[in-house]
Amino acid sequence: MAARKIGDVVLAVQNISLSFGGVKALTDISFDVREHEVRAIIGPNGAGKSSMLNCINGVYQPQQGAITFRGQTFKHMNSRQVAEMGIARTFQNLALFKGMSVLDNIMTGRNLKMKASLLQQAFRNPFGFGTAEREEIAQREVVERIIDFLEIQPYRKTPVGKMPYGLQKRVDLGRALAMEPTLLLLDEPMAGMNVEEKQDMSRFILDVNDEFGTTIVLIEHDMGVVMDISDRVVVLDYGKKIGDGSPDAVRNNEDVIRAYLGVQH
Amino acid sequence: MAFFLETTLGGLMVGMLYALVALGFVLIFKASGVFNFAQGAMVLFAALAMARFAEWIPQWTGIENRWFANIAAFVLAGLVMFVTAWVIERLVLRHLVNQEGATLLLATLGIAYFIDGLGQTLFGSNIYKIDIGLPKEPIFAFDSLFQGGILINKEDLIAAAIAAALVTLLSLFFQKTSTGRALRAVADDHQAAQSIGIPLARIWVIVWCVAGVVALVAGMIWGSKLGVQFSLATVALRALPVVILGGLTSVPGAILGGLIIGVGEKLSEVYLGPYVGGGIEIWFAYVLALVFLLFRPQGLFGEKIIDRV
Amino acid sequence: MLYRENGQFKSSYRADQQIFPILQDRIFIIGVLAFAFLAVPMLASDYLFRAILIPFLIFSLAAVGVNILVGYCGQISLGSGAFMAVGAYGAYNFFVRIPGMPLVPALILGGLCATAFGVLFGLPSLRVRGLYLAVATLAAQFFADWMFLRIKWFTLDTPSGSVAVSNLQVLGLPLESAVSKYLFCLAVLVVIALLAKNLVRGAIGREWMAIRDMDVAAAVIGIRPMYAKLSAFAVSSFIIGVAGALWAFIYLGAWEPSAFSVDYSFRLLFMVIIGGLGSIMGGFFGAAFIVVLPIALNQFLPVVAGLFGIGISTVGISHAELMIFGALIVWFLIVEPHGLAKLWSTAKQKLQLWPFPH
Amino acid sequence: MKLKSIALAVAAASALAGTAPAFAQAKEQFIPVLSYRTGAYAPNGAPWANGFVDYLKLVNARGGLNGVKLSYEECETGYDTARSVECYERLKSKGASFVQPLSTGATFAITEKAPADKIPVLTIGYGRSESADGTVFKWNFPIAGTYWVASDAILQAIGKKEGGLDKLKGKKIALVYHDSPYGKEPIPLLQERAKMLGFELQLLPVSAPGVEQKATWLQVRQSRPDFVLLWGWGVMNSTAIKEAQATGYPREKMYGVWWAGAEPDVKDVGDGAKGYNAVTMQHGAEPQSKLVKDVLAMVHDKGQGTGPKGDVGQVLYMRGAMSAMIGVEGIRAAQERFGKGKVMTGEQVRWGLENLNLTQAKLDALGFGGVMRPISTSCVDHMGASWARIHTWDGAKWNFTSDWLQGDEQVIKPLVRATAAKYASEKKLTPRTPEDCQS
User: Fold this and answer.
1) What's the domain count of chain C?
2) Which residues of D touch C3 (CB under 8 A)?
3) Consecutive 10-residue runs of chain D (439 residues): their mean pLDDT?
4) Nearest Cβ partner for B309 among A20, A21, A54
């Protein structure tokens, strides 16, 4: 891990507040993410972790605060822009495209890279010339590399709906990787996995992190995993930030301990 | 001015009748998440049944009293609707639980075809009469204020009254009775309702029965207005904008929507129509609902949807 | 072992990305085409052409269009009848107003009119979902009905507002005989179905399906819902529009707005659901089912009744027809909610192992 | 796979092809009957079909046409154009002598197909009015009246009431019409007439099927027209009359077309419709006519009647019978030229219909004495007669309330010629020459 050198801040979240019809989901949250680091967001259920990510990639529009990415500051983000800026995302309870094959799911991650017009696609021909066909093949090669990397070759043509949960999680990751992100948001990538699956997944995450140097923001329940793989940790509880720092610092923070062990909610 | 009032009144009364049909949609959608395109067919079916029974009962019983005939016919038709509801639940709905909307919608369309055929086979495809003694001649109110007075259609007035009564009855049923509460529970969350031991199947039968009765009342009123025959089924198409405007899950929405659509389409036809050659009221109702949807995608009283990922 | 993929190794991604990667499929398709283009014209009777095959082809085309919108992009629409009407009247106006306008361009222009109309009435889909949208699209239906009745310009001020076309020809060949009409429709269908297939298996198709399956996730990976939905509306209504034009020009010859009533919107939806959502093939199955069923019932019921010695009246037949039609649809949705196309693919899977299951 | 599917397809194809049998056997003149006994218009379609079929049965009971028996097959169209075309295609393959589309939509579609198939299109009292011009519409026969005749006759009747057509000046007449080609047919003539006679024409479309007309009748109440012409079909008619009652518009001032002047339109309105007028296509309800007596005696009493005995002689029943009669007489006329006792082809029947000459004597013999007036068609004039009467509903039955009226040739003819010419130029077909007429 020493190989990775942590760079300077790429993503800064400033005083984000979000509420749904009176119900406060996030209150005045601020934290930053540095290049190449693995940044974890932890907290009990309903702490607002997913909402935080949803704000970052423009699914929700926060009422207050701003988000700065690579020097550009936004009051609220627009999903398309976010994607173009190279922020990818996986989902807590799988948001795969159930009706489509593994291949197609991951291919969608390449759609941003494909420029062929509607007509070109309609008149796409099987003989390998023509923009559409060439693009399809080029992108397919990239996707195949990801498939190899995630070790899901045998499932290429299977509809994702029919796959075991753990593998679906991988496809989800694969779809995000297909976007060649510089910042990768992972929403509980190991939720509901057994130990082996968790180990595999951790391995993938770390590989991504040091092979492609991708910055990673990670939401996770399993403290063990978090403490192992993350460089810095933010702790949320009831939509408020109650801790931020290195795993050890956080581990010894009373508020955090209370939030997790002490007072039951 | 007088004419404007007349138009508005007319619109309100038609609206009340639309609301009655719309109610059928809402009830079923609320409880079973089925968008019941067969509602129109059910209206026709119920009306046919009532009309024919009213005709046959005197022959069977030899009692020539019109009131007796009508009431008996109404009861019998009601029973027919109950049976229909039960059969539909048994043969169709319970086999289609948790299919997506489109499939269910088409299933009800299939049911509609079937009921159309069945109704005409059992009761014939001629024009039949429902005579519940609604007065046909108009009255003219406020002649003192406006010359010619304001025309008020007694028939519509009574019809609207009946509709209103039915609506209050239903809302009472929903609020007060335990069945009503069970229905609401089911509407909110099927699984949860099941887990606390509410039998879905029974609830669905009940709600289809209720919808059947609503259809019967609607059929009775429209039938006595128009005469009972096939085209009665098409009033459903007039009631659809009401449903989306009011929100698929809201009873008050259906009522309010009905009134808005009723008034809207009449005013549009009377005041805009002449400039564009008339005949605009049908699509105007839809466009009205559409424009409205653009501002409130979930309709007047529908629940708001939040994306969770 | 008739139908097995194994042993067919793809050496390149291109080979793997053909429309029909599996050999047997290719053979089958070629076989069907050969049959349709060569055998049918020799076998079929005039009645079969005019009353069944031509409607079947045209509705298959329309079903393909509807399927793109409903099956691939997940936007339920009940406005298909309107799109057909716009296509028909659009093509008509180009055809008669511009002297010497050839048929095919007229059809395409008609389709483009439908596209514009479709995109316009597709706008609500950006705000409205599911059944709300379905009902909202009915607005298109009733508006079109009204528009073509009321705005005389569309119907060349004919007193009754109903229009006719005649002496159609393609590349100088007259479209009079049943066979020529059949072949023309078939050709149009094959070409458009091929293009449609290309779209749905390409980038745009993936965008549509992504929107259908999980629109939020789709947005997050950079798919613009607006573009995806509206392009689906555009493509689908283009195809439906062309189908509408064929229906008017080839099948009816003379028509009025009520020739594209809301009834057609429903029927087309039946076709795609019974045929199978999200499958081009499904469109054909569905169309065959919906076109042939009523006619077949209507002709075979008396025979059947005769067998049991029951003299059944015309009325009885058409009522029974309604009931059986409705019942069959319901039954179908129950036994195979994913449509005939699903049965088809299951059959294929079985054949992969046949005759040695496991 | 491939072979199997082909085999199946072939099987299916042949099976279906098999259902359209070959030509009817010799000595049987086949007549297709497109009818609708179901759906929105069933109440009006059924009696018409009963009349039509009963008459064919009567002809056979009378011994056929010089020995040639009539055979027929009914096909349910449900008033749907596409279904009508399918029926047409199916039945024509059995050697149709003529076809009765029985809906304006179907008429338009079949008009395009008939010439190629050499089958005359008989539209008794409906269809496109300009098709009266035989030089352009060689295969169309709107015999005994078109909508332009109907509307002109109504104006004549109103004129008579008012004491002269000139009295219509400055009057206001509203046309409440079924929003479809059918409902729009009379508009050109009425507009022509409005210019000539200087009355104001108000157009009030009612979108099909016409179950909801409040707005329309509110407009009527607002503009208070002196007369209302009702151009409805099916449920629209009774609804209109009910709304008129509900808005207090005098039924006496309402005039319906002959498709809005039958029992189903007024029966369930009862007294509410008292005083409502409708133009008749010559005949009205004719329970007393010889024809009805014959039908009852020779068909119904033999237990072969179509539909309820009580309906025999009702307005639409009579129209059906009359339509059948005209068609059959066309065949008879053809036989007189091309050989008695032979089965006529569509082309020969066309000639017969074009040279029809139904004298009073013939009509009396057929049982139509008093029901209708003589008709004689020609190459130029495919209508043959433009007579009409007005009948009025007294709350229980229809009674004639006018003597014979005739549509004004001076007005109708030019309109027919102009519209037909427009059609010809659009379709790029050249009108027939006198020589062609001889054929």
Assistant:
1) 1
2) 1
3) 44 43 61 90 92 96 92 90 91 90 91 92 92 93 94 95 91 94 92 94 90 90 94 92 91 96 89 94 92 95 89 94 96 94 93 94 94 93 93 94 92 93 86 76
4) A54
Contact state of B309 with A91 under an 8 Å Cβ cutoff: yes
Query: Does a structural domain hold residue C37?
Result: no
Q: Is residue C1 part of a domain?
A: no
Q: Give pLDDT tens digits for A188-228.
A: 998 888 888 889 999 999 999 988 889 999 998 778 888 88
Which residues of chain C are at the B interface, by a Cβ-Cβ cutoff of 8 Å?
A: 70, 76, 124, 127-132, 134-136, 138-139, 142-143, 145-146, 149-150, 216-217, 220, 262, 266, 269-270, 273, 277, 315-316, 319-323, 325-330, 333-334, 337
Q: What is the CATH number of domain D24-146+287-387+418-438?
A: 3.40.50.2300
Which is nearest to D282 in space by CA: D367, D157, D371, D408?
A: D371
Structural domains for chain B: 2-295 (1.10.3470)
In chain C, residues with a C-beta closer than 8 Å to the C-beta of A132 are: 198, 202-203
| Chain B residue with Cα closest to A54 | B309
Instruction: Report the predicted TM-score, pTM, of the whole model to 2 decimal places.
Output: 0.92
- Nearest by CB to A99, from C13, C223, C278: name it: C278
Domain coverage including residue C152: 43-353
- The interface residues of chain A toward chain C in range 83-112, judged by CB-CB distance below 8 A, are 83-84, 88-89, 91, 95-100, 104, 107-109, 111-112
CATH of residue C209: 1.10.3470
A50 to B306: CB separation less than 8 angstroms, yes or no: no
- Domains detected in chain A: 1-86+181-265 (3.40.50.300), 99-180 (no CATH)
Q: What is the ipTM of this complex?
A: 0.90
| Contact residues, chain B to chain D, C-beta under 8 Å | 3, 6-7, 10-11, 14, 120, 125-129, 136-138, 151, 153, 155-156, 222, 225-227, 229-232, 234-235, 238, 265-266, 269-270, 273-274, 277-279, 281-282
DSSP-derived 3-state class of residue A19:
strand
Structure confidence by residue, pLDDT tens digits, D188-215: 999 999 999 999 999 999 988 888 898 9
- The domain D148-285+389-408 having CATH identifier 3.40.50.11540: the answer here is no
Domains D24-146+287-387+418-438 and D148-285+389-408 share a fold: yes
Interchain contact, C131 vs B96, CB within 8 Å:
no
